[in-house]
Specification:
Layout lengths: L2 H7 L14 H25 L2 H38 L8 H26 L1
C-alpha cells in the first residue's frame, strides 16, 4: 500500500506523506491558505463590481474629463485675450489709439443697432 493510500484512509499515526512529500498537516495548511486567498479574492471582486464603487469610478472619470476640458478652455481663452490685447497695445504697453477708436465706434454702432431693434420689437 502506498503512502497516499494510507493518508487517505487515515490509518497511520506517523507523518504520512503524499507523492510530493507533503504531510497531512502541510496539505491541510495549504488548503486553508488557498481558501483564505480565495475568500480575499472574492471579497475584492465583490468590492470592484459593487454599484457604489462603479459609480465612484464613473464620477471620478467624468470629473477628470471636465477638469481637463475646463483647463483647455481656460488656456485657449487666455491665449485669445492675449492676442486681442496685442492688437490694442504696442510692444511697450501703450494703447494704440489708431486701433482703439475704430473698435469703440464699431462697438457703439452695434449697440445702437441692437437697442433700436429691441425698441422696434417692443412696439
Amino acid at each position: 500500500m502506498s503512502e497516499v493510500a494510507r493518508v487517505g484512509k487515515g490509518k497511520t499515526k506517523d507523518s504520512p506523506r503524499d507523492d510530493a512529500g507533503r504531510t497531512t498537516a502541510e496539505i491541510e495548511a495549504n488548503i486553508a491558505r488557498t481558501r483564505s486567498q480565495l475568500a480575499d479574492t472574492l471579497d475584492e471582486l465583490a468590492m470592484r463590481v459593487h454599484p457604489t464603487t462603479i459609480a465612484d469610478q464613473v464620477r471620478a472619470k467624468a470629473l477628470a474629463s471636465v477638469e481637463q476640458k475646463v483647463g483647455r478652455v481656460y488656456v485657449g481663452a487666455s491665449r485669445a485675450v492675449e492676442q486681442v490685447k496685442a492688437q490694442f497695445v504696442d510692444e511697450k504697453g501703450r494703447p494704440r489709439q489708431e486701433r482703439i477708436v475704430p473698435a469703440v465706434l464699431v462697438g457703439g454702432g452695434v449697440l445702437l443697432l441692437v437697442a433700436s431693434a429691441r425698441r422696434r420689437k417692443g412696439k
